Amino acid sequence: MAGIALRGLTKDYPGGVRAVDGLDLDIADGAFFALLGPSGCGKTTLLRTVAGLETASAGTVRIGDADVTRVPPGRRDVGMVFQDYALFPHMTVADNIAYPLRIKKVGRDERHAAAGEVAAELGLGTLLARRPGELSGGQQQRVALARAMAARPKVFLLDEPLSNLDARLRLEARTFLKRLQRELGVTTVFVTHDQAEALAMADRMAVMRDGRVEQVGTPAEVFRRPANLFVASFIGSTPMNLLPARATAEGIEAGGAVLPHPAPGVTDGELVYGVRPEYLDGSTEPVEGAFEGRVAVVENLGSTSLVTIDTGRSDRAGELVHVVVGEGEEPEPGTSLWARPRPGRALLFRDGELVGGRLEKT
User: Fold this and answer.
1) CB-based contacts of 287: which residues, under 8 Å, 6+ apart?
2) Do residues 279 and 220 both lie within one domain?
3) Fewer CB in 10 Å around end: N or C, the chain?
4) Domain with 145 in it: what CATH number?
């Protein structure tokens, strides 16, 4: 197996469009690594450049000990799964899986034996004679994975392989992919715009914007300590509360409240106070060091609810603060709620960058 090292990687298109901008990135051997970002951030272009389907304008791509920057795709020893699976409709499942071995001029009997072995590993043994049009979306996804696995590549590259599945199949596929990667131990790079998928599946992840990497870390690190306001606002199924703030001798003023200072050394400049809704404790009784407001909206999330409070008063406009509360703890709209940040969970940002706060284990 092999890790991946990118140095100064750049991809330019005609018309002055720069999709990947001088990117440096290391992906460890055997890691399940996610490239996460909004549409158009360059993550798929980066994946295709690693695969050799796009030619780098500058910089280098190394897989293991080899510089493959100018090596053709077929000689990079990577297996790629595309968003639409790209199966050949006129071929059987067996022929689709065996196709990479056919390109490598492996004998018919040997490649079909290999296809049967991989198909059995993925629960496709009874479907080898079918064609893609006779398969469900989940089965097509497994055929695409089997085809990528057939040649036993050093690296798997997955380009949003779950995006065409419905919610139930997507959850099952996430579990399946994670277990498969663990069993094979193959370095895997997974492109997605869905932060829930990245947080659930990856060992490490990179958040991208405009062809650059904004932050690299474990899912827990990126979720708990986002490096800047872009990552803070992008990561999380419930967006982080980000409020204009001011440091005082008493603490941090934000949302009409005076809150404990998460980084006492930070005392100047325009600040943004950040705390996730999951890290606020709601109370219907007054508490110190908490946001106070009227409940504006209650959204049922299943086992929890997202409560939005308006901190405005008759003498001033307020901020909206979001709080996650447990099942059975939902306040009524129009009632008062106090939301107190948990110790060690608030962050401060200045000029868009994280400047304070500490991470404590739960």
Assistant:
1) 338, 340
2) no
3) C
4) 3.40.50.300
CA distance 58 to 55: 9
Dist. CA 206–CA 306, nearest whole Å? 28
| Enclosing H/E stretch for 204 | strand 204-209
Q: Note the pLDDT tens digit of each residue in 324-354.
A: 999 888 999 999 999 999 998 999 999 999 9
- Whether 146 and 178 share a structural domain: yes
Verify that 32 and 175 share a domain, yes or no: yes
Q: Do residues 135 and 143 make contact, with C-beta atoms less than 8 angstroms apart?
A: yes
> What's this model's pTM, rounded to 2 decimal places?
0.86
- Same domain? 179 vs 78: yes
Backbone angles phi, psi at 58, to 5 degrees: -160, 165
Shared domain for 121 and 12, answered yes or no, is yes
3-state secondary structure of 312: coil
Residue 108 main-chain phi, psi, to 5 deg: -55, -50
Picking from 175, 198, 226, the residue at the C-terminal end of a domain is 226
Q: How far apart are CA 235 and CA 223, in angstroms?
A: 6
Instruction: Kindly report which listed range (43-57, 220-234, 253-267, 273-287) carries the lowest average pLDDT score.
Output: 253-267
Alpha-carbon span 178 to 28, nearest angstrom: 16
For residue 117, the enclosing domain spans 4-226
Residue 334's region, left for phi above 0, alpha for psi from -120 to 50, else beta, is left
Q: Please count the other Cβ atoms lying within 10 Å of the Cβ belonging to residue 199.
A: 19
Q: Please tell me the total number of residues recorded for the chain in this structure.
A: 362
Closest CA to 259 of 243, 239, 283: 243
* DSSP element (H, E) containing 254: strand 252-254
Residue 166, class by beta-carbon neighbours within 10 Å (0-12 exposed, 13-18 middle, 19+ buried)? exposed
Residue 296 is assigned to a structural domain of this protein: yes
Least confident of 55-59, 164-168, 195-199, 335-339: 164-168
Contacts of 159 (CB under 8 A, 6+ apart): 44, 47, 48, 80, 81, 82, 83, 191
232 within some domain? no
Q: Which of 198, 226, 254 is at the close of a domain?
A: 226
Residue 306 and residue 176 share a domain: no
